[in-house]
Write a structure and sequence with these properties.
It is a single chain. The chain is of the alpha+beta class. It has a single domain (4-69), classed as Alpha-Beta Plaits (2-Layer Sandwich), CATH 3.30.70. The protein is 20% helix and 24% strand. It is built from 2 helices and 4 strands, in the order βαββαβ. The chain has helices spanning 19-23, 49-58; strands at residues 4-9, 28-30, 37-39, 64-69. The strands form 2 sheets. Strands 1-4 form a two-stranded antiparallel sheet. The protein has a two-stranded antiparallel sheet with strand order 2-3. β2 (28-30) and β3 form a beta hairpin. The chain is elongated, with a radius of gyration of 12 Å. The protein starts with a strand and ends in a 6-residue tail after the last strand. The relative contact order is 0.34. The mean pLDDT is 93.
Length: 75
Amino acid sequence: MIDGLRVVVDRDACCGSGNCVRTAPEAFDQDDAEGLVVLRQPEPPERLHGAVREAAYNCPAGAIEVVEQRPGGAA
């Protein structure tokens, strides 16, 4: 059983493609200075789970990790 998602981004790995922002703009942004990913929602609501997973899958740099949270907070 899944209780929620936790999202982790690696800005050092980010290549600034912007795929995440186009796929899930409520969860991700890009900073103006470097164009790198900015995580807006580290624990996105359920309605964004599909888009966040898609953004992680399509990230060309593999800079987005989605961790499924189990009941009680265990990953």
